[in-house]
Write a structure and sequence with these properties.
Length: about 375
């Protein structure tokens, strides 16, 4: 029998990176605005947000390539003020890979080891180990120019891993790869991180990448951290509309707060009636009684024939879009200012539902999330 379990956690509770009130200003512009966060030892942590939100800025300051205007950064318990990049227990993999075209794979990987002057074949052993970790064994003598994009990415990874950093910083490492290869590398990178147990900090603007790979995610907008949580919590319990919207499709329904206490909210909505939901930790009432209720398109299910559900809404299909494994329906519900988006897998004939048909949709009240406006 399949049992439902909480997903396992491999990392410890010890902080490997502590960022306290860090601001990076360029004149009056704040690329990073008073950011605080702690990344745990052994954690796969992602910084997720749209272009220009300050992800690279934060990563470069952890690496030591840039200095905070104010605030402090500690790695492995040590304050990093004044410590240059090459003396930090961190290593960075750049988006552009920055591998040397005139050197072969082994020489590229061994590059940073030269200054350690390792004895008795140790350098060679470490290079071979790093190449094995990224599945490049046997390609050591290839020139960097004779590699595919995915292989170059692996060389860049091996070159960082060979230094045995405590923290690996990855700035959009997969963005140059095509979709298939990127998905394959996401799985490999996650496996690699679990095998080596190093703390990984990944910068990405791809929400699916962050959701698929991370233990926790910090979502950033305009230099500020909006939410830090596990992928599931970020996706299912976004703290506001901006986070919800960035993490995929979300139906937003206007709501009126009727009752608010420590743990829950009672909201009045037109389409969904009166609902009671968990009050998000970060819920801050914006003056009046207005709020937003959200529900993801895949949490609405088509009710076929005479099937009923404890919680349902009724309406009419106004659009249908076919995507192979899923169908996307747009459903008008009386009283709702905007039609609902619904996604259904195509195993029950959702791809044949006619536009114009009356439809009933079931939902689990657990899937309803209250958000501050
Ligand atoms: N040297 C600089 N001088 C002035 N502004 C800068 C400088 N470096 C970065 N910025 C600004 O700081 C903001 C954050 O930049 P950053 O590179 O951290 O963004 P990002 O989140 O990594 O974006 P992307 O996903 O596009 O890489 C941007 O608005 C950028 O223009
Ligand atoms: Mg960037």
């Amino acid at each position: 029998m399949l049992e439902r379990v909480q997903s396992e956690r491999t990392q410890s509770d010890r902080a490997m990176i502590e960022i306290r009130d860090v601001t990076r200003s360029y004149g009056s512009f704040k690329a990073l605005d008073n950011a605080s966060l702690a990344i745990r030892e052994g954690e796969f942590f992602s910084l997720l947000g749209p272009s220009g939100c300050g992800k690279t800025t934060l990563l470069r300051m952890i690496a030591g390539f840039d200095t905070p205007t104010s605030g402090s950064i500690a790695v492995d318990g040590q304050p990093m003020d004044g410590i240059p990049a090459n003396r930090r227990p961190t290593n960075m993999v750049f988006q552009s890979y920055a591998i040397f075209p005139h050197l072969d794979v082994e020489q590229n990987v061994a590059y940073g080891l030269k200054r350690l002057k390792l004895q008795g074949g140790e350098e060679k052993r470490r290079v071979e180990e790093a190449l094995a970790q990224v599945s490049l064994t046997g390609l050591g003598k290839r020139r960097a120019t004779e590699l595919s994009g995915g292989q170059r990415q692996r060389v860049a990874l091996a070159r960082a891993l060979v230094m045995r950093p405590k923290v690996l910083l990855l700035d959009e490492p997969l963005s140059a790869l095509d979709k298939k290869l990127r998905e394959q590398m996401q799985v490999e990178l996650r496996r690699l991180q679990q095998a080596v147990g190093i703390t990984f900090v990944l910068v990405t603007h791809d929400q699916y990448e962050a959701l698929a790979m991370s233990d926790r995610i910090a979502v950033m907008f305009g230099g500020r951290i909006a939410q830090i949580a596990s992928p599931k919590e970020i996706y299912q319990r976004p703290v506001n509309r901006q986070v919800a919207d960035f993490l995929g499709g979300m139906n937003f329904v206007r709501a009126e707060i009727v009752e608010e206490n420590g743990a829950s909210l009672v909201l009045d909505t037109l389409g969904f009636g009166r609902v009671k939901t968990d009050k998000p930790k970060a819920f801050v009432r914006n003056g009046g009684g207005a709020a937003t209720l959200g529900i993801r398109p895949e949490r609405l299910r088509v009710l076929w024939d005479n099937a009923t559900a404890k919680f349902e809404v009724a309406g009419k299909v106004v659009e249908r879009h076919y995507f192979g494994e899923i169908t996307h329906l747009i459903v008008e519900i009386p009283g709702l200012e905007k039609p609902l988006s619904v996604t259904e897998t195509n195993d029950f004939g959702a791809d044949d539902i006619p536009v114009g048909a009356p439809i009933r949709l079931a939902y689990d009240p657990e899937a309803l999330v209250a958000m501050a406006d």
